[in-house]
Amino acid sequence: MLKRHLPMVGHTRGNRLPITCELKCGSACSHPVPNTSDNAHFRDIANAAISRRAALGLGGGLAAAVVIGANAVSAAAPATADNGTFPTGGGKLPFDAIDPVERTVDDMTVPAGYDWAPIIRWGDPLFDDSPEFDLEHQTGASQAKQFGYNSDYLNVISDGGDDRSGYLVNSHEYTNENIMFSPEYIASNPKDVIETGIEAHGLSIVDLRRGGKGQPWEYVRGGRRNRRITGSTPFTVDGPAAGSELLKTKDDTTGTKVLGTLNNCAGGTTPWGTVLSGEENFDQYFIGTGAEAERRIGITPGPTSRRWDTVDPRFNLNNEGYANEANRFGWIVEIDPEDPKSTPVKHTALGRFKHEAGTAVISRDGYAVVYSGDDQANDYAYKFVSRKKYREGDKKHNMTLLSEGTLYVAQFNGNSPESEIDGSGQVPSDGDFDGWGRWIPLVKNDKSLVEGFSVEEVLVNTRLAADTVGATKMDRPEDFEANPVTGKVYLALTNNSGRTADAVDEANPVANASGGNRDGHVIEMIERRGDHTAERFNWNILFLAGDPNQEGNKAYFDGVPLDMVSPISCPDNLAFDSVGNLWVSTDGQPGKIGYADALHKVTLEGRNRGLVEQFLAVPADAETCGPVIHDRDNSVFVAVQHPGEGGNWGAHTSYFPDFVPDGPLSGDKVAAPRPAVVQVFSTQG
């Protein structure tokens, strides 16, 4: 029988659920922090008071870059000054900000003038021969032909023309067996439960259709692009580490073929039409040997709560021939959604760590640039610059761009005296949390730039290499996104419960007495000369998250009066609308400020820069993921992840989105929570 060991019981703050900690990241906070390096926090490397303007000579915006992120169709949204007539500066989606929603409300809450509907849910059959959803008889074979669990990265892409057809791409981060199966089924069918979990991971590509522009989408069963990519799908490996001894196992003596992708979190859509997906908390699936490199990535000895090793020996690194199996996860993977028969690729040139995001930008000189955060407290921010240039319309060539290039890690510096950064969140005397930084190269093409590391060692053990060169410890770097109008880059830092007052710095300036940087923040980065391939950048904090109405809160919104902003905590995924407003989804608000996780719009230009307005809230225990903003189509899309995660079978805390608590356990609607992709659309035409 599967057992859930919950080491975070009694140690979570506020309303954070121990089961969330265990299933999402393997209760990472209960283990020693993997980064035990002596690397400086931000303030420790900022002793020299160097003016960012004088040192870098940074100019205007970056609108010359081509940016393709989660909102992409086939080209970047044009730069435009048309901000509409709305006083908050925002595009074609006028709305009055909603009030924050209590965390126990089991419903989607949207603004007046909008409605919502699910497009696709966990278990929906994708193919003509897919079995119907049946919670009492789920197996790996049935799940492999159904929509996966716990949706995260999302894009919804129109085919153009009459806008009646398109497709979505969605990643599936992890599984919640305690609300997916009854205890009796878990006890009597442990192999089926584990195999279902393996097949519920990965990604789904699903065809869509609708009646016309502005109308809600529905998914197409048996669509020509429909595909499941799971924990057992064959992948190829490319880049400088492909074929390395560090990637070889008894099942793959070439080190170039891997079964499956795991814990797929945020990602991105490339300018050439493929999808990137980051393998994040993959460490939790493996039983470790105690090796240093395993500890640095978070893999520990002893049984895992998932016990996948009881079905497949590769998940125990102590088994003969499988010592390197975990090295084959933790990469950026690339998938061609237009070709369901294509073999997806793991790109070693982008490094191995807990990837959150894979945001692709074409620089003004034509190079592909990919930004990615390493989602762990005190870990790092990275970017990759391709060796070859992008060719418009040459998809075959462009799909080789991520195979070779330069991998960088970020080092930040602040502008203010250390004495002004004391953990209180008080704005420095110069009026801004800001500074400058540099990108430190780790690998260039097939050459290591880190002393004592081969190129394969840098790419497989990227955290250890970044420790060596003095990268800057950050507060859980999550999603990176580039503004399609200005080209500026934004980084969400979700939180860091372990930050202390003696380790704060100008980019991480809060250490609450209740536990570190509780609510997180968002950083704006401007690459030197407007060039995404540059090795220097400016940065400033756009906002320090929090609830201004709560006593002792350190919220800051770039000067916007606190009584104007919506409370926000734990920024996670980022997105943009067509006129360059930032949209921020959250992961953890219930446990920090007591409200349901949500999606917010943030104004970036003009007198209201920093204004946060809440657009929607997700159901009880759920997380808001993968926002996609089609403001010209009056639509917003989100992935609703782990609704009802705090419940148990027979005592569910959510019945989203079917809402049939007394209903059946099989068929179109079932009496259990189901992660789903949701469209929010205007009812005003």
Question: Can you describe this structure?
Answer:
This protein has 685 residues and is mainly β. 10% of the residues lie in helices and 28% in strands. It has eleven helices and 32 strands. The strands form six sheets. Strands 1, 14, 15, 17, 18, 19, 20, 22, 23, 24 and 25 form an eleven-stranded antiparallel β-sheet that branches. A hairpin with a 4-residue loop joins strand 30 and strand 31. The chain is globular.
Write out key terms for the chains shown.
685 residues; mainly beta; 32 strands
How confident overall, as mean pLDDT? 89
Helix count from the secondary structure assignment: 11
Helical amount: under 10%
Count of strand segments: 32
Percent strand: 25-35%
Structural class: mainly beta
Major sheet, described briefly?
11 strands, antiparallel
Q: Determine the N-to-C terminus distance.
A: 52 Å
Radius of gyration: 23 Å
Low-confidence stretches: 1-11, 42-90
**Shape estimate:** globular
